[in-house]
Amino acid sequence: MHSYDILIIGAGHNGLTCAAYLLKEGYTVALLEKRPVPGGGATTEELMPQDAPGFQFNRCAIDHEFIHLGPVVKELELEKYGLEYLYCDPVVFCPHPDGKYFLARKSVEATCAEIARFSPRDAKKYAEFIDFWQRLLKGITPMFNAPPKSVIDILGNYDLSKLKDLLSVMAVPGRTLDFFRTLLSSSEDILNEYFDSEFVKAPLARLAAEMGAPPSQKNLALGAIMLGMRHDPGMARPRGGTGALTQALVNLVTSLGGKIFTDQSVEKILIDDDRAVGIRVTGGQEYRATKGIISNIDAKRVFLQLLEPSEVDDADNNLRERLDRRIVNNNETILKIDCALSEAPKFTNHEHKDEYLIGSLLIADSVKQVEIAHSDPAIGRIPDADPSIYAVVPTVRDPSMAPPGCHTLWIEFFAPYQIENRQDGLNGTGWTDTLKNQVADRVLDKLADYAPNLKQSIIARHVESPAELGDRLGSYKGNYYHIDMTLEQMIFFRPLPELANYKTPIKGLYLTGAGTHPGGSISGMPGRNCARVFLHEDRPIAQTLKDAGDSFQAAIESLFRG
Ligand SMILES: Cc1cc2nc3c(=O)[nH]c(=O)nc-3n(C[C@H](O)[C@H](O)[C@H](O)COP(=O)(O)OP(=O)(O)OC[C@H]3O[C@@H](n4cnc5c(N)ncnc54)[C@H](O)[C@@H]3O)c2cc1C
Fold it and tell me: Does residue 559 lie within any of the structural domains?
């Protein structure tokens, strides 16, 4: 039997990040991954080798923002292991039906100049809007980069400038309550407060709704930071695709002696004397862990699928019920369309320039259309009558991902996992091959309304239904963030208050991944934070002294900078 200090269930980018930090501290680590390739939601694959050889596709994540808010790339020196980030500018292009378009460049000033061509008032308000959300973002980022209940770690991340940013939004005399009122609002409320024009409000609503909830969702105005991040620190993609981030992590992990076993689906966590001591994978192979088991998959899957009910009950007799009934997955997931193209789409009615396609391409005609895109899936309906779309033509920024002169098209279309009143199709969700292709046709028709050359340029396409995506990722209802990112499931509530610091009631069993703080997306933060918690448990004195030293050094550096 194989034995390691630490076993990690799943080799998503967070599992790999966590492994890298622990290997650097001298532990032996093995990751067990159910798919034939590591990466989870962070892979780049040649999806259609027969029909479109040489075209590389990001099967899930494409645009990276959150990872630039944390130290993972720098601390792990991922550039030495092959990672190169290509920054995008412009960052968003959204053509509007009336011929206007929203073009966000990396610079806020340049973006205001673009908006001012159609609405001088909204251009001025845009600068105010972004300034507010950026100060808030800078003020709260230190909390993302620390376990939510580790006060010393959080304080250690604050330097003077971040503290100033936080106070500048929260502690304006007489405006503190107003600040909290803003956070309790919906993104739609806030957009209406700032802007007049639909061509500005609709794409901003669409980006805010990337949190996985409609723009009208109260208490989620925070979604507005999504655009702020694209200006600073910026939006980037690894050269070669998101899989290049995974590859850099794999290179690092293996160079430190870590093992990654693919095609190893974990079916059981082995418990001995109330402690997690090993893993059994499909086929019966067992692996032993002498110090701990870390799960890159969410708590609900771990406790309801990989442990015996009695083992969970012995540790906490309420936990199974709370995971089953209290954790929320709102039924929204993604129908994914990937196309190999002979040429890039041309937005001939919107003063087309190829550079407009460098960032994300949004079809968001109105806030109402975006609302339907996110509220229909929650009740099992497919919002394809007038689709709102998030698309990217990654090859405009990175031509290495397709044969010379050709392009790829990445489309995410929000759709329900379980379709209302249907029990047929894959896993009884209602999703059949015919239906997924019908929906894809409608989505591509809508995009072709804006880019008339699109359909004739499609060499081949691959459509993955929400049910297929769910099977590939393994998450409940195909949730792309493992569990919803609404406020009641964030920070010290993620996934549940009693599990929120990466520890669990079973000794030696830890959680990381999108289902833990600070949540889904490409960030590596859950992986890094979990590694820190593990180190605090395993070597409390050494780690506390190290953290105190790091905080002291950061404070001194910030004093000299400030
Ligand atoms: C279509 C789509 C588009 C997205 N676009 C973006 C984007 O542009 N930008 C962005 O920041 N984020 C995006 N996301 C979200 C992002 O991809 C995820 O939040 C992120 O990849 C989660 O990483 P993770 O390591 O926490 O988990 P995962 O990537 O889910 O990794 C978990 C791993 O565990 C494995 N696994 C599952 N069950 C088992 C088992 N029983 N045994 C062994 N292994 C198992 C899985 O195969 C997987 O490799 C997107 C997601 C989707 C689905």
Answer: no
| Separation of CA 549 and ligand 1 centre (Å) | 34
Encode pLDDT of 454-502 as tens digits. 999 999 999 999 999 999 999 999 999 999 998 889 989 999 999 999 9
pLDDT band of 558, cuts 50, 70, 90: low
- pLDDT tops 60 at residue 311: yes
pLDDT digits (tens, 9 = 90+) for 330-374: 899 999 999 999 999 999 999 999 999 999 999 999 999 999 999
**130 & 224 share domain:** yes
Domain boundary among 421, 444, 476: 476
Alpha carbons 378 and 340: distance in angstroms, whole number: 31
**DSSP 8-state code for residue 59:** S
Residue 383 shares a structural domain with residue 453? yes
Give CA–CA dist 353/93, Å, rounded. Answer: 11
Task: Judge contact between 359 and 234, C-beta under 8 A.
Answer: no
Distance CA 196, CA 193 (A): 8
Q: Could you identify the atom of ligand 1 that is nearest to the CA of residue 13?
A: 25
Are both 349 and 468 inside the same structural domain?
Answer: yes
3-class secondary structure, 235: coil
Long-range contacts of 550-553 (CB under 8 A, 24+ apart): 550/156, 551/152, 551/155, 551/156
Which CATH number fits the domain that encloses residue 526?
3.50.50.60
User: When comparing pLDDT for 51 and 544, which is higher?
Assistant: 51
pLDDT tens-place string over residues 146-171: 988 877 778 888 888 888 888 888 87
* Ligand 1 atom 36, closest CA: 10
68 CA to centre of ligand 1 in angstroms: 18
Which of 296, 417, 485 for mutating ligand 1's site (highest number of atoms within 8 Å of CB)? 296
Range of the domain at 384: 330-476
* Spatial strand order in the sheet of 332-341: 101-104, 92-95, 360-363, 389-392, 407-416, 332-341, 458-464
Residue 559 pLDDT exceeds 80 = no
Q: In this structure, are 181 and 277 located in the same domain?
A: no
Ligand 1 atom nearest to CA at 520: 19
24 pLDDT more than 80: yes
Residue closest by Cα to atom 18 of ligand 1: 521
Mean pLDDT of the chain: 95
CA 15 to ligand 1: nearest atom:
25
What total number of domains does the chain contain? 3
Tell me: do 358 and 245 sit in the same domain.
no
Q: What is the pTM of this model?
A: 0.96
Peptide linkage before 495 cis (omega within 30 of 0)? yes
Pocket of ligand 1 (CB under 6 A): 9-15, 32-35, 40-42, 60-64, 66, 265-266, 296-297, 334, 336, 412, 473-474, 480-481, 513-514, 520-522
The alpha carbon of 39 and the centre of ligand 1 are apart by a number of angstroms equal to: 7
Claim to verify: residue 353 and residue 421 sit in the same structural domain: yes
Q: What is the mean pLDDT of residues 311-324?
A: 96
Ligand 1, atom nearest to 514 Cα: 26
What is the Å distance from ligand 1's center to 41 Cα? 3
> Residues 129, 80: one domain?
no
The pLDDT score that the predictor gives to residue 90 is 98
